[in-house]
């Protein structure tokens, strides 16, 4: 699918606020509501827009610490990657699991109430997962969200 400048403008506006109506969006971009709706629908049908997500503020929900973990599996031949992924996916504090190529096999995004809570999750839940070898932790200090190039 080829995107024109209006399609890209729609995507940029939706990245800022995906809840705005097609009428509001069309007014901002000089399009009618039906034209805006048709463009959004076309991008959804083509898979350019894959869905919309609800973003929760973890800190306001009581989770003040975010840690990125690099996980190197100890015994790749003895456990399957699916077993590890299934087990780590069952830990609610693990927000993201990324299979990587490089120094670590996986990168996890973990949230916790505080450092003591993170230590509990690390010791009791993550370090006991099948095949876990080396683990490296990096605590998130701040985060800036950028929509990416359009």
Topology:
Layout: H1 5-16, H2 22-29, H3 33-45, E1 65-73, H4 81-89, E2 94-99, E3 106-112, H5 115-126, E4 132-139
Helix pairs in contact: 2-3
What does this molecule look like?
With 150 residues, the protein is of the alpha+beta class. Helices cover 36% and strands 20% of the residues. It is built from five helices and four strands; from the N terminus they run H-H-H-E-H-E-E-H-E. The protein has helices at 5-16, 22-29, 33-45, 81-89, 115-126; strands at residues 65-73, 94-99, 106-112, 132-139. The protein has a four-stranded antiparallel beta sheet. Strand 2 (94-99) and strand 3 (106-112) form a beta hairpin. Helix 2 crosses helix 3 (33-45). The longest helix is centred in the first third of the chain and has 13 residues, at 33-45. It starts with a helix and ends in an 11-residue tail after the last strand. The model has no long low-confidence stretch (mean pLDDT 92).
| Discrete helix count | 5
Low-confidence stretches: none
Strand content: 15-25%
Rg, Cα atoms, Å = 20 Å
Q: Helix share of residues?
A: 25-40%
On the 0-100 scale, what is the average pLDDT? 92
Number of strands: 4
Shape: elongated
Structure class: alpha+beta
Distance between the termini: 14 Å
Write out the strand line-up for the largest beta sheet, numbering strands in chain order.
Answer: 2-3-1-4
- Main β-sheet description: 4 strands, antiparallel
- Helix-strand topology string: HHHEHEEHE
